[in-house]
Amino acid sequence: MISRIDLRGAALPEGGALRDLLPRAEFDVEAALEKVRPICEDVHHRGTAALIEYAQKFDGVTLEQVRVPAEALKTALDELDPAVRAALEESIRRARIVHREQRRTEHTTQVVPGGTVTEKWVPVERVGLYAPGGRSVYPSSVVMNVVPAQEAGVESIALASPPQKPAFEGDPAGGLPHPTILAACALLGVDEVYAAGGAVAVAMFAYGTEDCLPVNMVTGPGNIWVAAAKRYFTGRIGIDTEAGPTEIAVLADSTADPVHVAADLISQAEHDPLAAAVLVTDSAELAEAVERELRPQVAATKHVEDRIKPALAGKQSAIVLVDSLEDGLKVVDAYGAEHLEIQTADAAALAARVRNAGAIFVGPWAPVSLGDYCAGSNHVLPTGGCACHSSGLSVQSFLRGIHIVDYTRDALAEVTHHVVTLAEAEDLPAHGAALKARFGWKVPTP
User: How large is the greatest C-alpha to C-alpha distance in the chain, in angstroms?
Assistant: First the structure.
């Protein structure tokens, strides 16, 4: 059901050589880019008409309009299961607690008497948020995108999610995003919502249409077509990350409960047949126990044949055996998991030493599923090893730092000779002349 990679008995290689030994899903964004390019340009030229045509082609629905009516948002919230509403409200509450603390404040540094540099933080003016709606529906992704944008102070927020096929003839929800997505938007006060999916939605946000103003930034997880469209528009708009298939790595020793470990691997495998589930352990006994435990747990759950079995059996998933937890730490740092669980005797100490992970879950009582919904942390995280250079979505994602330079005449005079010297060393004499002009074309004496 899941393969093994045995790294015991020899010194681990360094850097890229170690990464190359570890499992990873194949995710060719560059190939997908060529397919989304004409779609994006068609949206550019035809706007809403293209959106309606692609909804029919890709989603199998006939749209009369792309923007979701206000009454549909209200109806979705009114008809939401009370238990689901309570869970979403608690998820929102906890996310706000965490993300509110991330807000940066303006800071002024006096460099010299009369010379200051102030860094102020300005939110992006308008963002487009994406909530997937393919194999599964993710109202939690609405929460994870909207809350940090709101806490950053973004004034204009639009959200897109794929239109759903009618459940029956005459279904009023047909052609709209999933009602739970709409209800989550209503709970968060987001009233600009569009029935658009994949690369089409990203293009709508990037170029704008008759109905949707262009945005400055697009965030949110999605499939390979969303990732390819984000790459296509990078530079025109800001993006959070090119999200790939979801992944979990579990670093565990003999103290870990194989029931917990197996359940957590399965929890990620149920997302997608390309989802990665990786166990790194120095205990052959635990590895065997987890393998035994996977079979009955998989058999007892949903989405077995179309997602879980192919995900666990795929080249992106494995049990990795190492000689020690020190080697295990090197392996998980090389892997750079989206989600990393530490289930060891001294989990907190090991977690403190991890350098590369989207989010770290410490001990047996902090499973990834908690972070997906109600830990307060954000679940929009870097995948594909990008955790070695990128962070998860946060308030900072929606803020821009701007330096404000304020110098007096005397403060400028004191440093002019250095500026002129450096400008001439770079063969840019006009740079120095810009200062000399202020002092009668003479360099002030320090």
Answer: 85
How many C-beta atoms surround the C-beta of residue 384 within 10 A? 21
Q: How far is CA 31 from each of CA 59, 170, 353, 408, rounded to the nearest angstrom?
A: 22, 39, 37, 55
Q: Which residues contact 387 (CB under 8 A, 6 or more apart)?
A: 336, 337, 338, 356, 357, 358, 381
- Hey, which bits of 192-338 come out as E strands? 193-195, 217-219, 238-239, 247-252, 276-281, 318-321
pLDDT in tens, the chain (446 residues): 899 999 999 999 998 899 999 999 888 899 999 999 999 999 999 999 999 999 999 999 999 999 999 999 999 999 999 999 999 999 999 999 999 999 999 999 999 999 999 999 999 999 999 999 877 789 999 999 999 999 999 999 999 999 998 877 767 667 899 999 999 999 999 999 999 999 999 999 999 999 999 999 999 998 999 999 999 999 999 999 888 899 999 999 999 999 999 999 999 999 999 999 999 999 999 999 999 999 999 999 999 999 999 999 999 999 999 999 999 999 999 999 999 999 999 999 999 999 999 999 999 999 999 999 999 999 999 999 999 999 999 999 999 999 999 999 999 999 999 999 999 999 999 999 999 999 999 999 87
Residue type, 206: A
Angstrom CA distances, 308 to 139, 350, 366, 369, 381, stand at: 22, 29, 22, 16, 21
Residue 90: both structure tokens together: 């608690």
**Cβ neighbours around 370 below 10 Å, total:** 13
Cα distances (angstroms) measured from residue 128 to each of 131, 213, 300:
10, 10, 39
Number of C-alpha atoms within 13 angstroms, CB side, residue 363? 4
Residue 166 DSSP SS3: coil
CA distance 394 to 98: 10
Q: Give every CB contact of residue 268 below 8 A, 6+ residues apart in sequence.
A: 246, 247, 248, 275, 276, 277, 311, 339, 368
Side by side, which strands form the sheet with 3-6?
A: 3-6, 318-321, 276-281, 247-252, 339-343, 359-362
Neighbouring C-beta atoms of residue 70, cutoff 10 Å: 12
Active site positions, annotated: 338-339
Q: Indicate whether this model's pTM tops 0.85.
A: yes
Q: Which residues contact 439 (CB under 8 A, 6 or more apart)?
A: 413, 416
Gap between the Cα atoms of 22 and 8, Å rounded: 14
Q: How far is CA 167 from the centre of its chain?
A: 31
